[in-house]
Every structure is written in structure tokens, then in C-alpha cells.
Amino acid sequence: MRLHPFCALHPRPDLAAEVASPPYDVVDAAEARALVLGRPDSFLRVVRSEVGLPQDTDPYAPEVYAAAAERLRAMIADEVLVRDPSPAIWVYRLDWGLQTQIGFVGCVEVDDYLSGRVKRHEHTRRDKEDDRTRHIDTVGAHTGPVFLTCRAQPSLSALQSRLTADAPTLEVTARSVRHRLWRVADPELLGVLERAMAQLDAFYIADGHHRAASAARARDLRRAAHPTAPADAGFERFLAVVFPADQLRILPYNRVVADLNGLSEDAFLERIDGPFEVSPPGSPAAPVSRHEMALYLGGKWRMLRARRHLIDEDDPIARLDVAILQDHLLAPVLGISDPRSDKRIDFVGGIRGTDELSRRVDAQGGGCAFSMTATSIEELLAVADAGLVMPPKSTWFEPKLASGLLVHPLD
What we know:
Elements: E1 9-11, H1 16-19, H2 29-36, H3 44-47, H4 62-77, E2 81-83, E3 89-96, E4 99-109, H5 110-115, E5 118-119, H6 126-139, E6 141-142, E7 146-150, H7 154-163, E8 170-174, E9 177-184, H8 187-198, E10 203-207, H9 209-225, E11 237-244, E12 250-251, E13 253-257, H10 265-272, E14 276-278, E15 292-297, E16 300-306, H11 321-330, E17 345-349, H12 353-364, E18 368-371, H13 377-385, E19 396-397, E20 408-409
Parallel strand pairs: 5-10, 7-11
Antiparallel strand pairs: 1-2, 3-4, 3-9, 4-11, 6-20, 7-10, 8-9, 12-19, 13-17, 13-18, 14-16, 15-16, 15-18
């Protein structure tokens, strides 16, 4: 595989903390508006530019994308963001409690994504693709990296230690996560990294399927507008960070359902007693073993254990706990056949804890919630290697990457 050096746009080191923001897709509109208060240089003003417009503004209106482009131009003009004079790879280290992950930031060929060398495990939604495609094309930059992973490679691990020995180029601590980045432009070191990457057969999308799909669509728009552009034009590649799989942490992605599909609590429990072993009330709120899930119903937690005949360990999809829940409970019992579009189900990242699940069910006055085990990184890789697609909202990665620390201009 190839990870190309690029001329990054990044904050001045003294302003990095003012610029860094959460990713655009982990905060809602109200949270985004609250986070930019008193922070004129927050990168949320670029990736969620509606925060600078009236509250009733359609987030997909043309003026939103125009505002993002104008805000990025202003940050460059004011030298809040500066452009590197020469290409480089960046090393990105995140520390969150006892969790540490170290990746390499560079650019990946759009053609590698389209050919399947960058492997996927999720479907994308056209409306979300449309949004990010317009954003990339109007702003003229990839404003956040696609989060990729790769199988562990000893030569990459050794290189990580070598390249992070000195003081970082940029450093920010936000939301209890320490973000550090080192710029690597030395030709010898870049050659070592290139040879290590060449030993990899594939990259895998961990998070960022919509960013990658949108980068490919924006590439096509730019190609049509610039038919004589060189083969290595900026829009032929997209910004990405590659982390070894053995360093990543996946949290559960839990489910909250608005109602019991017309069933009483007793009738619901009777229906699920076939596919699942249902424990008495009073169980823990978090499952500890594969093929278990905790059910919050009627103010109490119960543990569900999938019966053995439901589990096909040879099928990379059917053996996933999120698939077992979907195929044997959500669809046949609760009538949620398409969780991507059904308004009766909501998804809650494990970072919010199980108290958030019980709070939501209690607040809505009915329904239920499911506290899941986390999908493992090996399960994710197996699905991608098989060319299959996981159920929606199967993985929640922590810690989240910061936005605004590295930007890839398309020109």
C-alpha cells in the first residue's frame, strides 16, 4: 500500500488548542453551537459552518458550504492555519487514559479505494455522501482524515517509536484526550515508512466510510472540471490516518427502541424467550461475554443469551452480536427491518454508558434498550476481507480524532 506525503495545512502551534474541534459527525447542531461560543477559531466553524448562520438555516443550504469555504480562507489569511512548504507524513498519537494509539497521516489514492484495496465494512447513505461531497468540492480541501486501520506490522511499530522520541510539532489536550503530531519530512525516514507500508496488502476503513465515498465523488467532479490536471493532482487522493489494528479500541454501540411494537411487556418477553435465554430482573447493565446483551425493560435490566442454534461461527456476519439482535429480535419481534431508516430505533455510543440507556427509556415512558458487547477489531477485519457489510452502527471507536489539526488542500 502507498501513503503519500502531502503539504498540510495546520494550525500555528500556539493556536492549535483554539482550532482543534470534535469531528463534524459526533456533535449535533446544539452541541456545535455551544462549543464555538467564545472560540472564533474553532474548526467547527468550517466543518459545521451553520453554527455561524441563523439557527433556522438548512444545514444543507448552499450558503452553509459557502460559509465553510469563506471561514477556511479567513483562517489562512489570518495565519491561524499555515501551509507546509514541502510534503511530509505526520505521526499522530492519541492518549486516552491507559489507551494509546499511534498512526501515520498521509494521502491515499482514490483509485485504491475504488478498486477495493481500501476495504469497507459499511454501506453509506446517499444524503450524507451528498453533504460531504459538496463540502469537499466547495471548500477545496479534505478537512478531516478517513480513519483507516491495517494489520499489525512490526516494522511500523518500530518506526512509530523512533519517530515519536522528540518533542511533537503540534500538541492539544481536549475532552480528556491528548493529541500529539510529529511532522516527518526527512527523505530517508520517508523511504523507511514507504517500504514498511509496501508490505501491507490492504487498508481497512475503521471509521469514515462517508468521507471516503465523498472524496471519490469529489474527485470525479474535479476531474470533469480540470480534464488536463496531472495524475498526482491533490483531488486524486484523500486525507487518511492509518493505525495498526492491535492498538485500536472499539466500544459497544447500544440500541434504544421507542416501543414494543404493540406488545405488552409480558408478551414481548414470551416472544424473545425462544431465540434467547432470558435471565430474571436484576442483571448487570453491561454484558461481559460474546452473544450476551443486556435488556432494559420496565425499569429493570435482564440478560439475554443467544441460544446456540442461532450462532454460526463460520459466518463473519451471522456471528456478530449486533446481527444476532437484528435478525432474531429487532426485525421479527419489534418490526424494525431496516434500522438505517426506521425512526423507532436510536443508537447510543458506548462512551455514554448504560445509564444513558435507562434514562432514555424512562424518559420516553416505554420501549426498551439493549446494552451490547463491543464488536472486535478482528471481527471487523474478517467482514471486510470477505467483502461483506456489517449491520448499521456496529462499531464505536474511541478516542475520536481531532478535526482541524491537519487539512489536505486539493490544489
